[in-house]
Amino acid sequence: MGRKKSEMAVPGFTLGAFILLLLVSSVANYPSGKVTKSCHGMIPEHGRTPQSDPPCYISVSQTTFRPGEQIKVTLSGPPFKGFLLEARDENLTGPPIGSFTLIDSQVSQLLTCEDIQGSAVSHTSPSNKREIKVYWNAPSSAPNHIKFLATVVEKYNIYWVMIPGPIISQPNVLPFTTPKATIAPMPTLPPVSQLTKSFNASDCGNKKFCIRSPLNCDPEKELACVFLSFTRDAKSVMVEMSGPSKGYLSFAFSHDQWMGDDDAYVCILEDQTVHIQPSHLTGRSHPVVDSRDPLEDMAWRLADGVMQCSFRRNITFPGVKNRFDLNASYYIFLADGAADHGRIHKHSQQPLITYDKYNVTGYPENIGGSHSLFLLKVHGALMFVAWMTTVSVGVLIARFFKPVWLKPLFGDAAWFQVHRMLMLTTSALTFIAFLLPFIYRGGWNWHAGYHPYLGCIVMILAVLQLLSAAFRPPLHDPRRQMFKWTHWSMGTAARIIAVATMFLGMDLPGLNLPGPWKTYTMIGFVAWHVGTEIVLEVHTYRLSRKDEILDDDRIQILQSFTAAEAEGYAFKKAVLAIYVCGNLTFLTMFLSAINHL
Ligand SMILES: *[C@@H]1O[C@H](CO)[C@@H](O)[C@H](O)[C@H]1NC(C)=O
Ligand SMILES: *[C@@H]1O[C@H](CO)[C@@H](O)[C@H](O)[C@H]1NC(C)=O
Ligand SMILES: *[C@@H]1O[C@H](CO)[C@@H](O)[C@H](O)[C@H]1NC(C)=O
Ligand SMILES: *[C@@H]1O[C@H](CO)[C@@H](O)[C@H](O)[C@H]1NC(C)=O
Ligand SMILES: *[C@@H]1O[C@H](CO)[C@@H](O)[C@H](O)[C@H]1NC(C)=O
Predict the structure, then answer these.
(1) Which residues form the Reelin domain (predicted)?
(2) 161 in the same domain as 197
(3) Is 362 in the pocket of ligand 5 (CB under 6 A)?
């Protein structure tokens, strides 16, 4: 019975592993304060207008300094998440001056800005802080006056840029006179208007190039319609994007089917308005915000949980970085996800990716895409067939149907032929399925958590099972008992690990099966299988008891024995038939879910 307990324990263990993975990955996404890109302008790359009237201030331990001296600098205010502190010359235009020494390295870290080590200080995590203390070390060649400056981020979309701090001076120099126009010009945002009615699909394939999911849906009539259209005129393209989202909607042009090096546009919901933000992706990390200047005629609309945004951009941008020329063909990604305070989170499901590269300024087409990549779908489907159906039936037959199907079939006992056929099928399917993610990825996937590791263990066990079966000792060999035990325990281990691997794999973005449905269905399958094994186990036990009693009484021994046996076999066959029906039902549910991705 130990085997059953451990199989039942698998969902609990896997759920635990899930939660652990989720925690680890969400912590890893938090801003780390490594903001060296913002050193010069001291503007966070958040794409929002900075606030005025800073609530934070900087104070210093003394107002005069000599080269080599240490001055204590304090930044304080209401709770804030991030900051950047620098010392500059009186005109604020040059590079940061001097270096800092940390007092509390838990909350602050040194940055190397403009090649000067430790010339700026930033946060280490987005935790709330009220006060930061550091030392500033005056360099030997310092200008006469030094001004401290800080950028403070209260939330992702609320921040103050270059908050002026006190000015400190070398002794015996002329007093500091306020230079004119010190503060860097604030970025201003182009006007954005509100749409009065929904986008519609009436011109799709006629004037508009449309990408839709579900295929050919209408954003005007269906709330669940994810819609992206491009309408070109002589020099520019009008873009419309629509879909259900409470966080953000985005699309990107890509040279390949992987994320990275892409030209992306994000519409983010923030305080009941929608911000339209061009960005670019470098690798699989958070998109980097770009200037909004290339976009014109920006407009948006929010109704019934559907977010819509539109803008116009030129087909080509000579000399503008990160905006692709739209006279060429690209793969197009469509993604959505959650956002808080204007900071977007990783997409909740695998983005919709077009099957091919398309020229959105060319002939207006009507296309769809897939959330899952074909090879990964086949991988999932084959693994489900192998580890849900063929292996389970094969094991039941070896364990409970030996006496039932003893008659030879092509030279061997029938049960053995069926068992061998099912297990060979399992191994073959596993092997083919195992190769597919490697072909798709072109190597190991470091972003898939424990799934690929467990998958490798299952693959190795499957090969070992085949080898051990091939070198099975003859029936009366003393090593036969040893073989039976090894064969059983390796097989059981492989099945348990396979179930755990399937639990983890179902949640990976490459094959993102829907919501809690997949977990419950998988638990349902495990319960169905374990239940069947228990029923057959109890039945076998009772049958053997009956045999013993008959044996003791020695009454009509032969006749009763066969009658009881025949009845028992009929029961077993009925259980197997019902089990196979249930098993195929679960398999069909998973296969059709994969097919619909
Ligand atoms: C700041 O600007 C003034 C006027 O442009 C100039 O005279 C002065 O030398 C500058 N100071 C530094 C430290 O560059
Ligand atoms: C569809 O939208 C276009 C603008 O993109 C508009 O001119 C047209 O009237 C709309 N059609 C319908 C049927 O609402
Ligand atoms: C788009 O192109 C037109 C003319 O080709 C130009 O005048 C305009 O400034 C461009 N717009 C942007 C945002 O670059
Ligand atoms: C797209 O336009 C740019 C700028 O006009 C040009 O350099 C490039 O060759 C064009 N590409 C294609 C594929 O037509
Ligand atoms: C895309 O379409 C435009 C407009 O029809 C055309 O000028 C351009 O050459 C096309 N690009 C490709 C790569 O086919």
Answers:
(1) 20-185
(2) no
(3) yes
